[in-house]
């Protein structure tokens, strides 16, 4: 299925180095990944390394816990756009979600979506599905679809549970076809990656991207 085209090749550890970002970008260009996802300070560098390729540069906003004040997230998003990020992966305010404060969630995300879309960039909201109730996932699908996001993303990878087939299926059921799904968190094998795609994910956030692509090749030649 050419799984590489679904993958955001991801490196978000707090000790990320420029050499690691260079390697990440080289691998992304070589394998044909959809994007790299790097910490905000490395957006400009990643754009430089990927110049002339079709690989997009994504970065994270309000990462990893999402409880930064709205103005701080907006400033992060605006800076990421200036630096050249093609896609913004924004962690929602889970404190507000758990408190039922949907008004805050709407007011937080709308300026980011407006700024990104004006600059022809994409927005993915990270809802941390592994620690939400089903009804909270559904609530997020409705709220963020109405706000105009491009993707709803399952996880940061920092919670105790990452992506699951069940969460992706639930999200796909309650999102319009115009909103895509990015699954992330704990995706380390081709088999699991394919399950998530079959469930409705159109993008995968992975740090084990090369192993996943290698697994696809092995599977197609009877290696599994």
Q: Order of strands side by side in the largest beta sheet?
A: 1-2-3-4-5-6-7-8
Strand percentage: 15-25%
The number of distinct helices, counting runs of at least 4 residues, comes to 9
Order of helices and strands: EHEHEHEHHEHEHEHEH
* CATH class category label: Alpha Beta
Number of strands: 8
Radius of gyration: 16 Å
Query: What is the SS-derived class?
Result: alpha/beta
Give start-end ranges of low-pLDDT stretches: none
Integer count of domains: 1
**First and last CA, distance:** 16 Å
Question: What is the mean predicted local confidence, pLDDT?
Answer: 96
- Largest sheet features: 8 strands, parallel, barrel
CATH superfamily: Aldolase class I
Q: Which outline best applies?
A: globular
SSE layout and pairing:
Layout: E1 7-10, H1 18-31, E2 35-38, H2 43-49, E3 56-61, H3 70-83, E4 87-91, H4 94-98, H5 102-118, E5 122-126, H6 134-147, E6 151-153, H7 165-174, E7 180-184, H8 190-199, E8 203-206, H9 209-220
Helix pairs in contact: 3-5, 6-7
How would you characterize this protein structure?
It holds the Pfam family DeoC. This is Deoxyribose-phosphate aldolase. Catalyzes a reversible aldol reaction between acetaldehyde and D-glyceraldehyde 3-phosphate to generate 2-deoxy-D-ribose 5-phosphate. It contains nine helices and eight strands. It is of the alpha/beta class and 224 residues long. It has a single domain (3-220), classed as Alpha-Beta Barrel (TIM Barrel), CATH 3.20.20. Helix 6 links the parallel strand 5 and strand 6 (151-153).
């Amino acid at each position: 299925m050419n799984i590489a085209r679904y993958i955001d090749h991801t490196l978000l550890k707090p000790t990320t180095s420029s050499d690691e970002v260079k390697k990440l970008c080289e691998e992304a260009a070589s394998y044909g990944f959809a994007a790299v996802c790097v910490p905000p300070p490395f957006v400009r560098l990643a754009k430089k390394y990927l110049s002339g390729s079709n690989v997009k540069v994504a970065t994270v906003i309000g990462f990893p816990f999402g409880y930064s004040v709205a103005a701080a997230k907006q400033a992060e998003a605006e800076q990421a756009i200036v630096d050249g990020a093609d896609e913004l992966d924004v962690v929602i305010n889970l404190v507000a979600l758990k408190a039922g404060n949907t008004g805050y969630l709407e007011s937080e995300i709308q300026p980011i979506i407006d700024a990104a879309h004006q600059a022809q960039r994409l927005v993915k909201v990270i809802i941390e599905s592994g620690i939400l109730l089903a009804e909270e996932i559904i609530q997020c699908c409705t709220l963020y679809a109405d706000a105009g996001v491009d993707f709803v993303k399952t996880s940061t990878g920092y919670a105790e549970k990452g992506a699951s087939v069940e969460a992706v299926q639930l999200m796909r059921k309650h999102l319009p076809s115009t909103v895509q799904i990015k699954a992330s968190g704990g995706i380390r094998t081709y088999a699991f990656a394919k399950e998530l795609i079959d469930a409705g994910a159109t993008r995968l956030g992975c740090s084990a991207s090369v192993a996943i692509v290698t697994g696809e090749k092995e599977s197609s030649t009877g290696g599994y």
